[in-house]
Amino acid sequence: MTNLIAQIASDEIIDQAYQWLCQSREHYHYNADVWHLRRWWFQKLPLLQNQLLAGQFRFRELRLIRGRERTIEWWSSLDALVCKAISLVLSAYLRPHLSQRCFHLAENGGLKGAVREVAAHLRNHNFVFRTDVKAYYASINHDILFRLLSEYVHDEMVLDLLWQYLKRCVADNCLYTSIQQGISLGCPLSPLMGALFLKPLDDRMAPLLGVVEGELGCFYVRYMDDWVVLAPTRWKLRAAIKAVNEVMEELLVEKHPDKTFIGRISRGFDFLGYRFFPDGLSVALQTVERCMAKVVRLYEQGASVVRIGLYLRRWWQWVRGGVLFVMPIYPLPASKSFVLPPFPSSVLFGFLRCILNNKVRNN
What we know:
Layout: H1 4-8, H2 11-24, H3 33-39, H4 41-54, E1 62-66, E2 71-74, H5 77-94, H6 110-121, E3 127-132, H7 136-139, H8 142-152, H9 156-166, E4 169-172, E5 175-178, H10 190-197, H11 199-205, E6 219-223, E7 226-231, H12 234-251, E8 261-264, E9 269-271, E10 274-277, E11 280-283, H13 285-300, H14 305-320, H15 347-356
Parallel strand pairs: 1-4
Antiparallel strand pairs: 1-2, 3-7, 3-8, 4-5, 6-7, 9-10, 10-11
Helix pairs in contact: 2-5, 8-9, 11-12, 13-14
């Protein structure tokens, strides 16, 4: 039996997690606990390793941080380090059991890899089913996820840490809540848990992807809780949708009503920030809207033209990077309108105005 807790507490893994913590929190406030941890690290390291090996480590309560766009649960620096160490070990340990069609996992291609895969298979299919899970992290059932973990992880001490991670306590202005459902947004362990929770979906879709007898010849890609199914015929797509619905019912989750699309590929569909058509892809309207919202916020905060221009340049590099971006921006609905602040004239701002007015044509 593999001694996972010994790997988690090893010098190599703890050092990797410590380097990650230092890098990810290097710009934190000088009163943040990461600086205290770094100051006394060589004294705390052996104590931490002994606690892990003895099964005595306990996570502290989390703090709820409410931001402008999202709310996250903030882990103390030592707890975040332990979660990262668990993630490093379990990612390698669970990799043989996780689907290669799950693109958000390391070495599986990432977001741009998923986009390229979908774009490359559009011509071979006629119908599409695209959806994601409504409030994915918040709707994950602890008992179901822990049962999946127990199938592959047999180290009792690691399972105890994972149970603590799930059944965490969150403090919000001195109000303490024991979490009974959902996983933590912002925790380094959560992406792996999110991938494992939908493993039954990956397993159910696997037999539908081939072209031999008994298989449907469909195409399937998942990125976290977003996925796309392409099918050559309508009845094959219906069979795939039925399989998806059965799995989601078993996992006690729901499809997001506003992000579900079923129909012909020729109508176009959005996935991971892009708009897909049979002969190529373009940037999705929602991606442009988010870019515009960010530009307006920067302008209202008094950001310089240079800073806003650099943001727009990085945004456009992200849009073009790693994909064959050959389609023009598709027409905006008549109901959509954008009002730009009175920016100083520049090439980048003029370019963005062209995007919003559907005047850009890419060669």
